[in-house]
Amino acid sequence: MVGGYFLAHIFWDTNLFIYLFEQHPTLGDLVRQLRRKMRERGDSLMTSAMTVGEVLVKPTRDGDEALKKRHLALFSQPEITVLPFDLEAADAYSRIRQDRSIRPADAIQLACAASAGVQLFITNDDRLSRTNVAGIDFITSLKRAPL
Question: What is the SS3 assignment for the chain?
């Protein structure tokens, strides 16, 4: 606990990074505000290697090597933990996929977060925000995230 706040491990789903990088007119500001509050509280930001791959799709498709390098540099910063899809995540994935309404890509994200024991998983997929996953305390939408 720092300054009266609990230091939380918070997982960002891919869409939050996309809003930030593509400067979405409303959601980009919301993501920046969320990140500012996380820094003030000392929360740790986590995402998965899959998120990095998804974020790199557009600059790769466009042949924009400079943008690709900037994105990779951001994910290489010590303030962001990029979680692997390892054996522990694979085990969590097998349990999550028992719910066939959860798509494989979403299950990978949730499994990476669950294997890291995150307190909060933030997405903009309302369908996922109604899901309960062992190893994740809360799943919420960006608009309902604690700012």
Answer: CECCECCCEEEECHHHHHHHHCCCCCHHHHHHHHHHHHHHHCCEEEEEHHHHHHHHHHHHHHCCHHHHHHHHHHHCCCCEEEECCCHHHHHHHHHHCCCCCCCHHHHHHHHHHHHHCCCEEEECCHHHHCCCCCCCCEEEEHHHCCC
The model's confidence at residue 6, banded by pLDDT at 50, 70 and 90, is low
Report the DSSP pairing between strands 9-12 and 138-141: unpaired
Domain total for the chain? 1
Is the pLDDT assigned to residue 3 strictly greater than 70?
A: no
Distance CA 85, CA 29 (A): 30
CATH of the domain at 103: 3.40.50.1010
The C-alpha atoms of residue 5 and residue 27 are separated, in whole angstroms, by 25
How would residue 2 be classed by pLDDT, with cut points 50, 70 and 90? very low
Evaluate whether 123 touches 15 at the Cβ level (below 8 Å): yes
pTM for the full predicted model: 0.92
